[in-house]
Structures are given as structure tokens and as C-alpha cells.
Specification:
Structural class: alpha+beta
Strand order of the largest sheet: 6-3-4-5-7
Shape: elongated
Distance between the termini: 93 Å
Number of strands: 9
Order of helices and strands: HHHHHHHHEEEEEHEHHHHHEEEHH
Largest sheet: 5 strands, antiparallel
Number of helices: 16
Helix content: 40-55%
Amino acid sequence: MRAKLPSSFTNPITMLGVAIATISFIVIGFLAINEWLAKDPSPYVGVLAFIIVPGILMSGVAIAVFGILRESRLIRIGKHAERQFPSIDLANPKHQTGVVVVAVLGSFLVVATGVGSFQAYHAMETDKFCGTSCHTPMEPEYTAYQNGPHARVGCVKCHIGSGAGWFVRSKLSGSYQLYSVAFNKFPRPIATPIHNLRPAQQTCEQCHWPAQFFSQKLLRQTYFSSVGEKNVKSTIDLLIKVGGGNKEAGPTSGIHWHMNIRNKVTYIASDDRRQVIPWIRSEGPGGEVRIFKSSELPFTPADSSKGEQRRMDCVDCHNRPAHQYRNPGRMVNHLMALGWIDPELPNAKDLAVTVLEERYSTAEIAKDSIRIAIEEHYTKDFPALAKTKKASIERMVTEVQSLFAKNYFPSMKADWKNFPDNIGHMYFLGCFRCHDGKHVDQAGKVLTNDCNTCHTIVGQQVAGKPAQVSLEGLAYEHPVDIGTDWKSGPCAECHNTPPPAASAKEKAKVVGARTP
């Protein structure tokens, strides 16, 4: 006797729900196997397999149940229409052909759907998707990322990490961002830092292991200052005291003392950008606690209770690890040191920095204006040189235009001044947010601001003077004679502000207007 489904089951709504649930179950199995076999499973697989597709499956079940209940009610009130599944007779040649066609097309559809879904999930986790497909306001960040030191580390590796939990959290927190993009409500530039970013211990430290930071690193910086029309070269060699968390590998003091797992540093910032820090708590490996308070920044017990205490991690100093908007002076110094911008071109340093810092309404206007400003400067003020150095001037135009395209974004009002970089202390407070000599603990001891704590100057050659070398360390000599003023305040007070002038041409002629 042939088995027959109850009459309440044989209706289109129930069959639709059963089809949705069945296909969803197959997709879940496919994704689960994919995640199980993958060496480095993507968070998107977990989300699709265990959150999104199961939701679709339950929707299919709900539709099927609704169909059963609806059909049962129709049976009770006598409005049920008897339905039967079509019968298939494999002895009939036409039915045989139909079964083969349906089987082939059905198999093709299942395979195409599976491959398409898999490719869609892969597309969602690509850097291009993050940077261009949905996140139009992310053009500056995406461009900076492509030219940064982490360009081969996928966006989701840092912003989400492994597992479905943080993926869901990131997407839920980004729901307002979706609304902002759809209705053009997003801020210009995008505000940083990201306050709901996953802790660095779960992302950065999967590759950068603090226990293995050790030894010291030699860093040479080359910079050019204007003396009349000449670009005078200077260099400084710094022995950076990296430090680390493994005493067997070297000194545990130095910069990465802050990240040594035996030390716990927490702080409260009084601004959203974490640039103003009036309160710091340091707990050593023995449990000793020191509280440092700024002698200049107002801070009360009430402020302490209201402020967010944040434990210091990698991104408090390396706050622009993948999206760096570089300072124009430093960028031009680098290209002149490489010879890509000819140091023999008069006023090259000041002129390049000046045209980069001009305010342009669009990137296209900036590109044209940079060419016009540079070419006119040399054509009008140095006509003979403009002919003999034509190739060098063209190369300078190209390089400066490239610098602008990678670091300035007029449509989003994004450039280096809008995104503080906490590494060092030249252009932003950086280290001096805490190590300013004005944070005092309970015992009256000042948090050190001695430069030699983090680096030692082992070599320096200043503006045409003889080079000095000493492994014991040299006293810093400012390349432009400003007396002892450089000792009285943070470097950023001068280096973060462009020189006042009326026009690009006048700025280019300002003697010494740009220091390193």
C-alpha cells in the first residue's frame, strides 16, 4: 500500500517551507565542512553557517507549519481542496525524459547556488569589499591601507579576527554606519579612534608577540632645511630602545616596557581622541601601584569615576598601524634623500611641502594646481635652471602629486592633521601625552620625560657641520638655531603647524620656514 501524506501537508505553502528548510540544511552542512577543513577559517563562514543560514532554515520551518495550520483550518470548515502530487510513470518515455531533464537542471542549479554562495561569502571578506563596495567613505582609509605596512593583512584580520562573535558585534555596531552611508550622514573625516575595536591581544599579538620584543634598533633620519635657496641636508642616528617582555632575550626596559605582560598600565583620557591624559595608573609585577596625575590638567575624583579606564595596549601608541596619513615634511625628506626629488632644485623642500598643504576643493584641482605652482615657480624665478633641470622638475611634479593622492582627500576632509599618530613626538604629542614631565605620583616623583629613556643619539650631522658620532650618546642639536626654545615645549607645537604666508609663491621663498 502506498504511503500518503496527511491532507494538511499537501499544499503549496507547506511545500515551499519544506524546500527552504531543506536547502538551508544542505548549505549549513556545506559551510560547516568548509570551516572544519579550513586551516584558517574565516569569521564569515561561522556567521553564515551558524547564525544567518539557520535563521533562514527556521523561517522555512515556520512557513511550513503555517501552511499546515492553514490547511487544517480549511479542512475543518469544509473549504479544503483535495490535492495530489503528480504521479511519475518511469515506463512512460515522456516521463523518463522529464525526470532526466529535471535531475540535470536541478543538479546544475544546486552546484551553481553553492558555488555562487561561496564566492559571495569570499567577496564579502575581501579588502576591496571593505574599502570600495560598501564603504564609500572609507576611500582615504583604503588608500592609506594599500600603501601602508600592513597591506597584506586582510581588513577582517584586525577589525574582526576569528570567530563569529566579534563579527556579529562589529556588524551590529556598524548598523548606524550603514544608515549614515545610505543617507549621507557620515562625518568628514571619519572619527578615530574606533572605541569598539577588538583588543590588540586578540589581533596584533597573534603575529607580534610582546615576549619576543628585544634588543635595540638603529634608525637614521634624513631631513632638509632651507638656507636661502638651498636645501641643506642633516642626519640623525637614533638607537631605539625597543625593550621587551623576556629577560632572557635582552633588556625588559625601554619602549615595550608598557606592553610587558608583567606590567599593567591603565589611563583615563579626557577627550575622545585619547590625546589628553590627566590620570595614569601603573601596576608592577610585584603588585606595587603608582598613580600619576597631571599637575596642569584639571582632574577630580568625580572625573575618575566618570572616565573610562583603558588598559594600555599596542594601539595606544601604534594607533595608525595600517592607515597612515604621513606628514608632508617627513614624506618630502624621504623622497629627497632617495633623490626622487632633486635636492639641487632651489626651495624644493619648502615648495613641495607648501603645495601639499594648500587647501584644494577636489583631488583633480589639487593635481593641476600642484603642477602649475611648481612649474611657475621655476619658470619665473629660475628660467635658466627650468631648462637644464626640466626632467628633475617633471619628476618633482609627479612625486608631489603622488604624495598628495596617497595622503590628502579633500572630499572627506582627511589628511595627516586630522589623524594624530602617537608613534614618537615630532608632529603630535605622542609619547608626551604621558611623558611630559608634568605627571606626578603620590610620592611626588615625576613620570620621566628623559629622551634617553627610549632612544640614544649615536650620530648627528647638522646643516653642513662635521658629523658627530658617539656610542655613549650625544646631546641633541636642533638643526635650526632657536636657542633653547626646543627644550621648553613639545616638538609638535612648531612642527604640527604650517608657516603663515599669503601664497604658495611667498611660502616657497620663506627662508627656513620649514624645519624637519
